[in-house]
Amino acid sequence: MLLAAAVALKLILLKYVASFLVSLLLFYCVFAITRPRKEIAFSRRFVVGFSVFLFFALWASIFARTFVMNDLGPERARTIDFMLVNVLGFLVAAYLHARPRPAKTTKRKSLMAGGLVVGIIAVVASFALYPNHTWRPVVEGLTASADLQSLMLARFDAAKRAKGGALEVAGYVHEPKPITFFNEIKANPAEWENVCFSQYFGLTEVRLKAKPE
Which DSSP symbol is given to 99? Predict the structure, then answer.
């Protein structure tokens, strides 16, 4: 258990620190451009307390996966991690933007513009140097989700054409599975996924086709 907690903390430092800094920079630039009202600013006590809460929520979420799989888990689970990271970046950026500043803002604007340029260069460089850790998984996940949708639509049409009889369909074979969450039916028609599918479409049974050897 202690090992899983240590691995979860290590994964946070390795996988999400850069994401947090990018999120912080982007939110700060958005606040500087849009200039939201100071009345909606968060207090320092609230930002510190809620940031600590979000960090432990992220740690606890990753701990459960590292305890079982020793890894961050599937993409659909990591979306929760990125949501927490982005909320944390939003809170810190909102607090930094709302802090009292000197009357002279020229230097601050120059620093902000420089930081924005550096951030854009860093994002573009990460896309070019580390495609497997940035844009490629997103594109592949969207493509896989589209393929899954096509398979499911064809399966629904086949179920309607079966007209209350038995149905045998091809399974989804893409690995890893896309971010779209679903429970695949099984070769055994008695499995609960098969029973739910057959009852919904009014079939006697549904099963997967045997994999070709």
Answer: S
| pLDDT for residue 213 is more than 80 | no
User: For 16-105, where are the alpha helices, taking DSSP H only?
Assistant: 17-34, 44-69, 75-98
Residue 163 reports pLDDT greater than 70: yes
Question: What span, in angstroms and rounded, lies between the C-alpha atoms of 191 and 55?
Answer: 39
Structure confidence at residue 144 as a pLDDT band (50, 70, 90): confident
Which residue type sits at 102?
P
CA 67 remoteness from chain centre = 20
Q: Residue 102 — very low, low, confident or very high, per pLDDT cuts 50/70/90?
A: low
pTM: 0.54
d(CA 7, CA 98): 35
DSSP string, 123-189: HHHHHHH-GGGTTHHHHHHHHHHHHHHHHHHHHHHHHHHHTTSEEEEPPP--SS--SS------SST
The answer to whether the beta carbons of residues 66 and 6 sit under 8 Å apart is no
65/97 Cα distance (integer angstroms): 35
